[in-house]
Design goal:
By secondary structure, this protein is α+β, with helices and mostly antiparallel strands. The two termini are 35 Å apart. Strand 5 and strand 6 form a beta hairpin. Strands 7-4-9-8 form a 4-stranded mixed β-sheet, sandwiched between helices. It has a 3-stranded antiparallel β-sheet with strand order 1-2-3, with no helix packed on it. Helix 2 crosses helix 3. The chain folds into 2 domains: 38 residues, no CATH class; 139 residues, Alpha-Beta Complex (Nucleoside Triphosphate Pyrophosphohydrolase), CATH 3.90.79. 18% of the residues lie in helices and 37% in strands.
């Protein structure tokens, strides 16, 4: 097995699409399509189907206060039938809006906080085998309360609970399997790793 010669990194690449057809597309932000794909340089004529769940992307905010507590939400998620500990987050559903502005808006609307310090931690591809979704993860510090204005929480959001959880307790909850949603797990473990390495 070869050893990588350069830095360990994902590589942008696009294989030829022979044809594409919509399986579902409506006024919803998301759609499902089937692409017929072939390997580059393969002259055999063979191709194969890959389904793609089109997604506009999302932002996730790890908001940490001076006491090293993270602002979390407990929210019902119907597809997996449970209430999950999560971070403030939202879809990138406003055309042309900068992802940082989206993160700032979501923090204000969901938990009535604003931050004096923002840092983009990383981007995630949560399920690259099926969806185009990218999750942009931000760290927010220097927190202060702010009104959500005229934004009204609806549906599951109207029933969510806000929690302040010590980051160390959250790390343990993730490692013990008590908190399982992927964005919070990745953000919290990455924050802990960066903190231990003196990179925050």
């Amino acid at each position: 097995m070869p050893t990588p010669s350069g830095p360990i990194a994902d590589i942008p690449e696009s294989w030829p699409v022979v044809s594409t057809r919509d399986l579902y597309r409506a006024d919803w932000l998301m759609a499902l399509r089937a692409d017929r794909v072939r390997r580059p340089g393969d002259d055999s004529g063979q191709s194969f189907d890959r389904w793609v769940f089109e997604h506009p992307g999302a932002v996730v905010v790890l908001a940490v206060d001076e006491q090293e507590r993270a602002c979390c939400l407990r929210q019902y998620r119907h597809p997996v039938q449970g209430r999950f500990i999560e971070l403030p987050a939202g879809l990138c559903d406003s055309d042309g809006e900068d992802p940082l502005a989206t993160a700032q808006r979501e923090l204000r609307e969901e938990v009535e906080l604003e931050a004096g310090e923002w840092r983009r931690l990383f981007d995630l591809a949560p399920s690259a085998g099926i969806t185009s979704e990218r999750q942009l993860c931000f760290l927010a510090r220097d927190l202060r309360p702010v009104s959500r204005g005229d934004f009204a929480l609806e549906h599951e959001e109207a029933d969510m609970e806000r929690l302040w959880v010590p980051v160390d307790d959250l790390v343990e909850a993730v490692l013990d399997g008590r908190v399982s949603e992927s964005p919070i797990a990745v953000c919290v473990l990455a924050y802990d790793a960066l903190r231990r390495r003196g990179r925050l």
